[in-house]
Fold this protein.
Amino acid sequence: MNIEIIGFVAGIITTAAYLPQVYKIWKTKKTDGVSLFMYLVMFIGISIWLYYSLIIDRPSLIVANTITLLIISTIIYFKIKFK
């Protein structure tokens, strides 16, 4: 089995875990239970993971980290907008 397939499956599952939070915030326009600090720290961490992914040239990590950054950015945007 190609190791990248495992990476893509793991990336899809872990990235998809953020989608219910985005949907709930978008639907309710409430971010009371969302920690801005936690998502800012996650943004920094995922950015570093993306940089690492680019250095080692792993497509599964690049795709997963890029999409995760977009989702986390959306949550941060909503947190600031709906404050």
Remarks:
- The chain has four helices and no strands.
- Residues 59-81 form the longest helix (23 residues).
- Residues 27 and 65 are 25 Å apart (CA to CA).
